[in-house]
Amino acid sequence: TYKRLSADADTLAYEMSGDGDTVSVALNRSDSAKSVGGLPGGMLKDELTGEMVTGPSVMVPARSARILVAP
Description:
Layout (H helix, E strand, L loop, with lengths): L1 E6 L3 E8 L2 E8 L5 E3 L5 E5 L5 E4 L2 E3 L3 E6 L2
């Protein structure tokens, strides 16, 4: 199931869930790092980098994405 969490001119956050699993995706198309909100609160693991971040807002590097799951 797709659920949009937040969006503005340069960022988008959405959630995909099914079969008991949930993944949140934060995208940034800007030329600078942006804070993307609307994500689940608490500790989240970025599956692309292995970095642990804290929601509900995370910094996303310029022209990049974060794929986030609960650890």
